[in-house]
Amino acid sequence: MRCSQCIELFDDYIDGVLTRDTMEKIQAHLRECKHCRVIFHTYSLTIRLSKSCETFNTLSKERIKKLKQTLTRSLRMENKEM
Predict the structure, then answer these.
(1) What pLDDT, on a 0 to 100 scale, did the predictor assign at position 38?
(2) How far apart are CA 50 and CA 65, in angstroms?
(3) Who wins on pLDDT, 70 or 9?
(4) Is the model's pLDDT at 64 over the cut of 60?
(5) Distance CA 70, CA 50 (A)
(6) b/e string for 22-50 if b means 16 or more Cβ within 10 A?
(7) In this structure, are residues 79 and 3 in contact, taking their beta carbons and an 8 Å threshold?
(8) Cα 40 from Cα 75, distance rounded (Å)
(9) Burial zone of 20 (CB within 10 Å; 0-12 exposed, 13-18 middle, 19+ buried)
(10) pLDDT value at position 81?
(11) Where are the domains of the chain?
(12) pLDDT of 6-35, one tens digit each?
């Protein structure tokens, strides 16, 4: 699996909606690729933090969606530069 493919699937990976085979491919890639591990950690932490903020300042589903899209775009651009 290429980095760009892995990064594009992070959202579905976090949501647990991928096939078992695809989940295993992502896990294998993350074990081998330090760059993607760092990106995944940052991405998933951002998602968790944004969700934890909902109790204090409710984020709309649209706002969360835009945040995920912005992060995904940024991560793709960063990956292209490597």
Answers:
(1) 92
(2) 11
(3) 9
(4) yes
(5) 13
(6) beebbeebbeebeebeebbeebeeebeee
(7) yes
(8) 9
(9) exposed
(10) 58
(11) 3-81
(12) 999 998 999 899 999 999 999 999 999 999
Q: How far apart are CA 8 and CA 35, in angstroms?
A: 14
Q: DSSP character for 20?
A: H
Greater model confidence, 55 or 30: 30
Give dist(CA 35, CA 38) in Å, integer. Answer: 5
Which residue type, as a one-letter code, is found at position 22? T
- Residue that is written with structure tokens 């989940």 in the block: 23
pLDDT of residue 2: 92
Report CA-CA distances (Å) from 56 to 16, 46, 78: 26, 16, 32
- Is the pLDDT assigned to residue 71 strictly greater than 90? no
Please, which residues have CB within 8 angstroms of residue 3's CB and are 6 or more apart in sequence?
Answer: 29, 33, 35, 36, 79, 82
